[in-house]
Amino acid sequence: MNEQMAELQIKKSRRARFESRFEHLLWRFRLVTILPVVMSLLGSVSCFILGTQEEIHALSHLFKGSFNPDKSIILLGKVVGGIDYYVIGIALLIFGYGIYELIISDIDPRLQDLSKERRNILSITSLESLKQKLTNVIIVALIVTAFKQMISYEVQSISDILQYCGCVLMLAFSAWLVGKNKKST
What we know:
This protein is an all-alpha fold. The protein has 7 helices and no strands.
């Protein structure tokens, strides 16, 4: 009887060690998410570079004196396009920080910042808060992209005017929803 108890105890001990090792390995497997974090941060940097190139291109036309008032819509499109790249870069930055904080570890320098506003700006406490922040930034990016398209839109008929007005109404509604969402949180 004692032998059976000892054998059962050994089996339980082996199972517990195996389970412990497996759980340790499973916990370490979360580090595979470093790849999307690094790639989103690199994507963010590339968007910032592309946005800066757009802005510099627009400014160079203005300061060289090669600015043509007839082409001002194209120049304005370049400026808005640069802003669009920046907003997309910010979305990628938020995604990278959020995934890192949710799955890997808290970002220690953010926690050491004394100002509450800075400490909370990229505070991602749940998948829902990450989704909400990304949704807000993506809506802003869509608004900027729509604005870029709308500044060069040529009205040729009454249905074009109605479509244009419908787009403006939808953009205003989207902006209102983002504002309402921020007030409720």
